[in-house]
Amino acid sequence: MSLTSTQPAATQTSDEVEMQIRGLMMDPITNMPIIVLKDIASDLVLPIWVGIFEANAIALELEKTATPRPMTHDLLQNLARGLNAQVNKIVVSELRDDTFYAVIWLDHAGETVALDARPSDAIALALRWDCPIYVNREVLENSKQAASGAQAVTADEMRRWLENLNDDEMGRYKM
């Protein structure tokens, strides 16, 4: 799905918090990969569980590992470049029913285009384009509220644990 927007793609809005990848690790309980995003201005973290293939695509780019042939996210980058488009930012825009949603903002032929995406795919592209990663403030608030529910005592504990991990504990992006 795509839509054209008047919002400048490279501009951060007041509803967005700039994040960086703090780490990529395996959830010891579910054995699923987690991308840990961290607010660049604070210690706030946002864990996002992703699929193994998407985590691998992110890990390859974080480690700057070359592959003999283009992987899917490399193909998407090459396709965008071939069409003279530029990915300017990605935004984790929504949390609905425990599922995160993202938008890839790009410029093409003078128009700003927003593409619906999974956060893992959007992050993999953001790394390849070296563009900023944002999270909507409402998503951060909703994830905090979800963490404050009855069974979320462990989610709060996990958030605190993630905030205090050092680089060795985060696995240095190894999958």
From TrEMBL:
It comes from the Bacteria. InterPro entries: BFN_sf, Bi_nuclease_dom. The lineage of its organism: Bacteria, Pseudomonadati, Acidobacteriota, Terriglobia, Terriglobales. Residues 16-147 form the BFN domain. This is BFN domain-containing protein. Pfam families: BFN_dom (PF02577). One of its GO terms (molecular function) is nuclease activity. It comes from Edaphobacter aggregans.
